[in-house]
Amino acid sequence: MGTPAVVLLSGGLDSTTVLAMAKSRGYEPYALSFRYGQRHAVELTSAKSVAEAQGVVRHVVADIDLRVFGGSALTADIEVPKHDRVAELSDDEIPTTYVPARNTIFLSFALAYAETVGAQDIFIGVNALDYSGYPDCRPEYIAAFQTMANLATKAGVGGPGMTIHTPLIEMTKAEIVRAGSALGVDYGLTSSCYDPSVDGQPCGRCDSCLLRLKGFEEAGLRDPLEYRAA
């Protein structure tokens, strides 16, 4: 048996790659996904498929209805921004697809899960290069959360401590795609779109779709998903 680790798994490209990386490093992954009222809940179907394909020890889906707060195009009746090319994405403002405090909420649940399965390691697919400008994807945020985690948990106070792993944080999308492909990741199982059709087909024009398409193009590989508009 390897060392247990909790892996946050949305079903998207990044988290699926991180799961494969955790396994390649000898960890026994416990996957954690969230049904939080997101408009792109089809990602949970992808998360289930990915978890099964990669053979996680256990896959938990936690229910948290963030629609009670709203404040995001993913959890409220706010239109998801669409663009024709990556160059139109702005680094100067936080987009409406930002879900307030989402990673803090998710990582807090991951801490609880980790303590119950005896894990001192948590993996999350945050990225500070090819991303949408979310404040909770930055290295300084992760460092601050890890400090808090080691003040607030039994493992941190009386044990070896918690480590938050962010293997993608300084990688471009192309580098992520290449790394996952080298590990045998089946990206055809994943879902990245913020505004998919009822049957799960990606729109090809939201921030997430554009960054994903850019990654595959720059990696010289074909994205296995079929888009409504590319």
Shape category? globular
Q: What number is the mean pLDDT?
A: 93
Q: Which CATH class applies here?
A: Alpha Beta
Could you spell the SSE succession in H and E letters?
EHEHEHEHHEHH
The helix tally amounts to 7
Number of domains: 1
CATH architecture grouping: 3-Layer(aba) Sandwich
Strand content: 5-15%
Describe it for me?
The protein is an alpha/beta fold and 230 residues long. The chain has a single domain, classed as Rossmann fold. The protein has helices at 13-24, 43-54, 102-117, 139-152, 154-158, 173-182, 207-219, and strands spanning 3-8, 27-35, 58-63, 121-123, 163-165. The chain has a five-stranded parallel beta sheet with strand order 3-2-1-4-5, sandwiched between helices. Helix 1 (13-24) crosses helix 6 (173-182).
Jot down its keywords.
7 helices; single chain; alpha/beta; 230 residues; 5 strands; Rossmann fold; 36% helix
Present the secondary structure layout.
Elements: E1 3-8, H1 13-24, E2 27-35, H2 43-54, E3 58-63, H3 102-117, E4 121-123, H4 139-152, H5 154-158, E5 163-165, H6 173-182, H7 207-219
Parallel strand pairs: 1-2, 1-4, 2-3, 4-5
Short description:
With 230 residues, the protein is an alpha/beta fold. The chain contains seven helices and five strands.
